[in-house]
């Protein structure tokens, strides 16, 4: 009987048999250990960052449980950092359901005047800035000659730097503007400028609170979204089937660790068939 003329139930059973065959595990032992490791060893550090799984890894959670570029480091069981494009960021929060995190630059954490000044950069293959205007850029300007062209900038937007940091004259000033107004400050009037993202609500709070400093505004960080969409879609299928997402460290592709061995996409079992063919179980 041709496949197309078979009753729907028969076709579904054939598909189920096919799925079972192609998803049958090819090896055991160490692969079961990978499932157990990724399932049990979530990343924990301090009170804010707890129970973090794929795509993150670090500390006692091994690389095959996450994705390259998502390594977390815990300091004194109090603070977490991540390195992106050779810049170190403090990780303040991770929202795994929304695939985003709040991070703040470590080099500006206690001092807005580091020796090396650089823009904030992300690896856009893995990350992106949170949506505008929820996240917006500030331009921090250093060693600016006092000039009437920006006399209108509020004094609260100014911050102090040790002279040695920027090798600047004591008469020079440092201040920030929203990125939108950066072009109004001539290049030659300031020695350096860098772009730093912040939350829009944090900026509003700054202007409404006379006691809040520029340093405190920057330490609130900004949202960074992580978006390896193809891997996350494959990971959803793996999770629905009872597996643990990981990475094949040889091919750098997503892999599904199951109780009985690794699979490409999902674990075999009734949960998979219920997901795709719920009519068979009614």
From TrEMBL:
Alphabetical list of InterPro entries matching this protein: WAK_assoc_C, WAK_GUB
Q: What class of enzyme is it?
A: transferase
Q: What is its main location?
A: membrane
Pfam families, A to Z: GUB_WAK_bind (PF13947), WAK_assoc (PF14380)
Q: Where in the cell is it found?
A: Membrane
Q: What is its EC number?
A: 2.7.11.1
Q: Does the keyword Signal apply?
A: yes
UniProt entry keywords in alphabetical sequence = Glycoprotein, Signal
Q: Where is the Wall-associated receptor kinase C-terminal domain?
A: 169-260
Q: Name one GO cellular component term.
A: membrane
GO terms assigned for molecular function:
polysaccharide binding; protein serine/threonine kinase activity
Membrane topology classification: Single-pass membrane protein
Q: Tell me the PANTHER family matching this sequence.
A: LEAF RUST 10 DISEASE-RESISTANCE LOCUS RECEPTOR-LIKE PROTEIN KINASE-LIKE 2.7 ISOFORM X1, OS01G0690200 PROTEIN
Its recorded name reads non-specific serine/threonine protein kinase
Q: Which organism is it from?
A: Camellia sinensis
* Classification lineage: Eukaryota, Viridiplantae, Streptophyta, Embryophyta, Tracheophyta
């Amino acid at each position: 009987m041709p496949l197309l003329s078979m009753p729907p139930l028969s076709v579904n059973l054939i598909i189920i048999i096919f799925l079972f065959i192609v998803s049958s595990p090819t090896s055991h032992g160490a692969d079961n250990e990978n499932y157990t490791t990724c399932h049990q060893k979530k990343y924990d550090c301090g009170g804010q960052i707890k129970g973090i799984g794929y795509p993150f890894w670090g500390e006692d959670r091994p690389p095959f449980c996450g994705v390259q570029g998502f390594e977390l480091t815990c300091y004194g069981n109090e603070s977490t950092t991540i390195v992106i494009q050779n810049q170190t960021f403090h990780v303040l929060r991770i929202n795994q359901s929304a695939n985003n995190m709040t991070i703040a630059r470590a080099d500006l954490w206690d001092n807005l005047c580091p020796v090396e000044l650089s823009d904030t950069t992300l690896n856009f293959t893995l990350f992106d800035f949170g949506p505008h205007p929820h996240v917006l850029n500030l331009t921090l300007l250093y060693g600016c000659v006092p000039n009437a062209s920006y006399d209108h900038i509020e004094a609260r937007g100014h911050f102090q730097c040790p002279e040695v940091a920027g090798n600047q004259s004591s008469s020079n000033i440092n201040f920030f503007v929203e990125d939108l107004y950066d072009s109004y400050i001539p290049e030659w009037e300031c020695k350096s400028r860098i772009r730093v993202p912040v939350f829009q609500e944090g900026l509003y709070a700054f202007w409404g609170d006379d006691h809040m400093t520029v340093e405190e505004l920057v330490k609130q960080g900004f949202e960074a979204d992580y978006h390896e969409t193809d891997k996350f879609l494959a990971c959803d299928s793996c999770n629905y089937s009872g597996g643990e997402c990981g990475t094949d460290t040889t091919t750098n592709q997503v892999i599904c660790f199951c109780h009985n061995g690794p699979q490409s996409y999902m674990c075999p079992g009734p949960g998979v068939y219920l997901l795709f063919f719920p009519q068979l179980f009614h």
